């Protein structure tokens, strides 16, 4: 009996190790420290890549992109799912999620994950976006019953359907909340006060969402995910260090466990690592940018991934220098923006692959060549 129990324990440990995990300030896979190196494949058809058969139209392009990133030595991609909610999930006339396209989302995202696994590439799924005005889903920030309908009818089944996929790295809940923050929102609770953001450019999306509502949505999403898949990793991709760190005069970390739990009341609704985006302004990084500092500068107890950057919008203009700086600086990963080469501040594929290839064989800050 003891032998049988021991075998179950060993099998259980192996099954957990077969997924990306966080230990202190590093990522691990199969009990080995790993570094995430790759690129964003944010979308091919904005907000309409997945659900109700949409993936059939873009699947060859995603698979070819995964091939190229893998061949360059990358091990991770970042992909956007709902984005602004214009295509998925489906809503009724009162703004409740119907769940009618949940099975198609499970199938299509599963197909992407299965293919990525054959190429030893992990996938970070981004659910929502606040970088631009997301009209179809804004009600989720203020109407609890509508939010709960999405969690129950879409997100929880989605997590349940995908939690066994080895390529699933993490859930990124909201892209760049800073884009929809006021610079003048006063609040006695520093978690929700945004007056420190004056002069930072916050609020560029043209709409304003109260910070407590954003943190509550993140808290409820994270709790829902972990209630279904306790091993799942969760983050939120933020536009820089102003809202994620405490290292400068205008900086304040709004994504601490205390802020998130305080906003939403869910004890498990926290993030597992920080995902920072870093671009230059008028050709220069801020003094507190990851490209100006090493990981230890931030005094974090969780990993930091530089989830978006571009060499074309950097100081060095060298993909090799940028990738090596983040790798050697003790961070958890770096992802270029972005593979489809459309939009502002994007790199061309030559630079993306040059950066990824330049660190593919390094091991001092974690393996990049992983086997899923």
From TrEMBL:
The Gene Ontology terms for molecular function here are: hydrolase activity, hydrolyzing O-glycosyl compounds
Signal peptide feature range: 1-18
For whether the record's keyword set contains Metal-binding, the answer is: no
Q: Which GO terms describe its biological process?
A: polysaccharide catabolic process
| Entries under Gene3D superfamilies matching the protein | Glycosidases
Q: Name one Pfam family in it.
A: Cellulase
By its UniProt entry, which InterPro entries does this protein fall under?
A: GH, Glyco_hydro_5
Work out whether the entry's keyword set contains Hydrolase: yes
Keyword terms of this UniProt record: Glycosidase, Hydrolase, Signal
The record places domain Glycoside hydrolase family at: 54-319
Tell me its family: Belongs to the glycosyl hydrolase 5 (cellulase A) family.
Q: Name it.
A: Glycoside hydrolase family 5 domain-containing protein
């Amino acid at each position: 009996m003891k032998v049988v129990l021991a075998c179950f324990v060993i099998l259980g440990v192996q099954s957990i190790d077969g997924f990306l995990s966080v230990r202190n300030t590093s990522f691990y896979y199969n009990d080995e420290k790993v570094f995430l190196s790759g690129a964003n494949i944010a979308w091919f058809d904005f907000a309409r890549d997945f659900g109700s058969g949409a993936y059939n139209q873009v699947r060859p392009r995603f698979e070819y992109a995964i091939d190229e990133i893998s061949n360059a030595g990358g091990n991770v991609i970042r992909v956007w799912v709902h984005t602004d909610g214009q295509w998925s999930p489906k809503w009724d006339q009162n703004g409740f999620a119907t769940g009618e396209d949940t099975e198609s989302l499970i199938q299509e995202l599963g197909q992407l994950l299965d293919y990525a696994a054959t190429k030893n590439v992990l996938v970070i799924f981004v659910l929502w976006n606040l970088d631009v005005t997301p009209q179809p889903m804004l009600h989720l920030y203020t109407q609890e019953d509508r939010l709960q309908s999405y969690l129950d009818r879409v997100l929880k089944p989605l997590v349940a359907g995908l939690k066994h996929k080895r390529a699933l790295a993490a859930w990124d809940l909201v892209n760049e909340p800073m884009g929809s923050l006021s610079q003048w929102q006063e609040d006695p609770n520093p978690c929700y006060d945004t007056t420190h953001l004056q002069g930072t450019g916050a609020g560029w999306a043209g709409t304003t969402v109260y910070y407590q509502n954003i943190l509550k949505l993140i808290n409820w999403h994270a709790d829902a995910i972990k209630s279904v898949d306790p091993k799942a990793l969760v983050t939120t991709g933020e536009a820089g260090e102003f809202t994620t760190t405490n290292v400068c005069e205008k900086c304040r970390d709004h994504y601490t466990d205390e802020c998130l739990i305080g906003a939403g009341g869910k004890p498990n609704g926290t993030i597992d690592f920080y995902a920072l985006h870093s671009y230059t302004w008028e050709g220069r990084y801020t003094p507190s940018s990851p490209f100006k500092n090493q990981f230890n500068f931030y005094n974090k107890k969780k990993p930091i991934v530089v989830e978006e950057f571009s060499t074309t919008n950097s100081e060095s203009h060298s993909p090799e220098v940028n990738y090596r700086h983040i790798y050697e600086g003790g961070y958890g990963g770096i992802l270029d923006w972005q593979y489809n080469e459309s939009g502002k501040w994007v790199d061309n594929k030559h630079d993306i692959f040059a950066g990824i290839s330049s660190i593919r064989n390094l091991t001092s800050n974690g393996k990049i060549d992983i086997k899923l």
